[in-house]
Amino acid sequence: MSENGKDGLYTADVPKGISRILLHSCCAPCSGAMVEEMLSYAERTGLEVAIFFYNPNIHPKKEYEIRKEENKKFAKSLAIEFVDCDHDADNWYARMKGMEFDAERGGRCTECFDMRMERTALYAHEHGFDAIATTNATSRWKDAKQVDDSGIRAADRYEGIQYWHKDWSSDTMTLRKYQISAENKFYKQEYCGCSYSLRDSNEWRRANGIPKIQIGGEHAGLGNRYFTDPIEDAQEESQDVVDEFFTQAKEIAEAGSDRVERKKKLDVYKDRRKNEKETGIDFGLNNW
User: Fold this and answer.
1) What is the layout of strands, in order, in the sheet containing 48-53?
2) pTM of the full predicted structure?
């Protein structure tokens, strides 16, 4: 590995004065390029990197265990400390009360990021780390500012804790993320993680004629849902696909819990699959 990362593809803009970074990780696929860059810096400076897994939002438990165990295995392969924090699902649902029908990237997501980053910052404070970061910042399915603002707020709670902020979702970083995911044949999750995201993603899929989400890597009739081809996998996260999904998600969320209104919103997109060739956009099984 070169001084600037894998084959010199990127550089590590590390905050000054940090020696131990606690990286909150949502899953192995989002961790790959981010961890690689941090380790490239560690080789030159001795920076200590540890992965912190605290994601009480992930539902159901089977999905949670798949993501956690794969993350743990990836950390072990790199000889990185892996901190397995309790699931804490009941507290997560209590904190999200009243926001069950918020759109993705809305208030519920802010609270979810806040909850996870607050716990990350607390652990960092209690165990001698001087910086935190999160792999949520690598995904184009996330609002980078929303993620970073949560990280900054959490770090500001404790003197001596910094939040490592940079553009982790650049084209270069995104491609490298998919290369690492394909090399490791990581599990390809198809929704953000929470039960509300699962519900809304399945409604969106049904409206667009896409099979519902299946938990696990083996899909009857659809083949294995693992990363295998960096270029094809990256296309599932194209900006066109991401923007279109969130445009719909916002419109559907406006209907709240009213089933009739939600159906009206969803019916608008029932012919969408027929128009794929005209738009040139592939609205297939998306990766989060």
Assistant:
1) 81-84, 48-53, 20-24, 131-134, 162-163
2) 0.84
Tens of pLDDT, residue by residue over 243-268, are 777 777 777 777 777 767 666 666 65
Residues 53 and 82 in one domain: yes
Q: Quick check: 211 and 225 in contact, CB under 8 A?
A: no
Residue 33 sits in the same domain as residue 114: yes
Dist. CA 71–CA 45, nearest whole Å: 25
Q: 177, 207, 222: which is the final residue of a domain?
A: 177
CB atoms within 10 A of CB 190: 24
Whether residues 120 and 219 fall in one domain: no
Q: Where are the beta strands (DSSP E) in the chain?
A: 20-24, 48-53, 81-84, 131-134, 162-163, 218-219, 223-224
In angstroms, the CA 5 to CA 245 distance is 32
Which range marks the domain in which residue 33 is found? Answer: 18-177
- Residue 187 contacts residue 58 (beta carbons within 8 Å): no
Q: Does residue 174 contact residue 234 with C-beta atoms inside 8 Å?
A: yes
